From TrEMBL:
<keyword id="KW-0808">Transferase</keyword>
<dbReference type="InterPro" id="IPR029063">
    <property type="entry name" value="SAM-dependent_MTases_sf"/>
</dbReference>
<protein>
    <submittedName>
        <fullName>Class I SAM-dependent methyltransferase</fullName>
    </submittedName>
</protein>
<keyword id="KW-0175">Coiled coil</keyword>
<keyword id="KW-0489">Methyltransferase</keyword>
<dbReference type="GO" id="GO:0032259">
    <property type="term" value="P:methylation"/>
</dbReference>
<dbReference type="GO" id="GO:0005886">
    <property type="term" value="C:plasma membrane"/>
</dbReference>
<feature type="coiled-coil region">
    <location>
        <begin position="231"/>
        <end position="279"/>
    </location>
</feature>
<dbReference type="Pfam" id="PF13578">
    <property type="entry name" value="Methyltransf_24"/>
</dbReference>
<dbReference type="GO" id="GO:0071770">
    <property type="term" value="P:DIM/DIP cell wall layer assembly"/>
</dbReference>
<dbReference type="GO" id="GO:0008168">
    <property type="term" value="F:methyltransferase activity"/>
</dbReference>
Length: 302
């Protein structure tokens, strides 16, 4: 296989929490794998929100690959991933209808053991195993689905370098490596690649060291671009808040001026009222004196 490198734009990025996935370090590799392999049938065991699945779907769209894509998941969760509600499956359906409606995508909402009967032997070209990560579970997934692989098929296994709790993919990986042509990444919990056709594996194996660096670099530079964009957004928000503060301060000054004017008007009105009240106080005395003078005048006349 003459491996080509692509520069994908993941168009569905804003429709799910793109960077919040243990799988994020492998998006660029999975994309290139699909573009190069051009698989007719892709199956994923363990899809969750679809981080890995949609990175492959993007490659199918961009490469105009005639592929049938199958996501198999109970969409209930498991003890390693977490247990979750129907929101996750609904989110996957929304991303499919918004970004990948033109693809042949089947969502098999069932257990792996039941879904295996939906596929003929030798019919899967790319299988991604990412269900429960105990040794027993992943070995069962691998052994059960192996007969379904086509002669030139490729299997990806996630979490081959994760050793916490009872994660056991790394143990199975040691067994697989002894039997098949493989390649592997250590970052993002590790991704193992198993080639059913040993020759294909052998032609790609010399690229291993370069891939380690290249695909980590693609992942980091994408994250840095995202961080730069976040910083720009934050700077724009801070500038908007500064402008808004200036506007609010101006309004406060205006209100303060209005309050000072009102206070002055109230004081004036109060002074006028006091003057009027004191004038009114002497009015009866003055009126009585005036009346007395008038009476006296009239009396003098008569
Ligand atoms: C680690 S998550 C998958 C992560 C996903 N590949 C990504 O890119 O984010 C594992 C998923 O496998 C599913 N799962 C585990 N065991 C299963 C089984 N036996 N049958 C069906 N689904 C299973 C869980 O529901 C969970 O969504």
């Amino acid at each position: 296989m003459d491996w080509q490198y692509f520069q994908p734009q993941f168009e569905y990025k804003d429709s799910l929490n793109f960077y919040r996935s243990a799988w994020s370090g492998h998006f660029f590799f999975a994309y290139d794998l699909v573009r190069n392999l051009k698989p007719a049938r892709i199956v994923e065991l363990g899809t969750d929100y679809g981080h890995s699945f949609f990175s492959m779907a993007q490659a199918v769209v961009d490469g105009k690959i005639d592929a049938e894509m199958n996501a198999v998941d109970s969409w209930e969760g498991d003890k390693h991933a977490r247990f979750y509600d129907s929101e996750v499956y609904e989110s996957v359906q929304k991303v499919v209808s918004k970004h990948f409606a033109e693809l042949k995508i089947n969502l098999h909402k069932k257990y792996f053991a039941d879904a295996v009967n939906d596929f003929d032997d030798n019919s899967i070209d790319l299988l991604h195993i990412d269900g429960l990560h105990t040794y027993e579970a992943v070995k069962d997934d691998f052994d059960t689905w192996l007969p379904k692989m086509s002669k030139s098929g490729v299997i990806m296994l996630h979490d081959i370098s994760q050793k916490k709790k009872d994660f056991g993919v790394y143990k199975l990986w040691e067994e697989i490596k002894a039997k098949y042509a493989t390649m592997e990444f250590e970052h993002s919990n590790g991704l193992g690649i198993v080639f059913m056709d040993e020759q294909v594996g052998k032609t790609l194996q010399p690229l291993n060291d370069f891939w380690q660096v290249y695909y980590q670099k693609e992942w980091f530079s994408d994250r840095i671009t995202k961080k730069d964009k976040d910083i720009e957004d934050l700077q724009a928000t801070i500038q908007w808040q500064k402008n808004h503060m200036i506007k609010l301060n101006k309004e406060i000054d205006n209100f303060r001026d209005i309050a000072v004017d009102s206070q002055k008007q109230a004081e004036d009105a109060n002074a006028r009222l006091n003057a009027y009240t004191s004038e009114m106080k002497y009015f009866p005395v003055r009126a009585a004196l005036k009346l007395k003078r008038l009476l006296k005048k009239n009396k003098a006349k008569s």
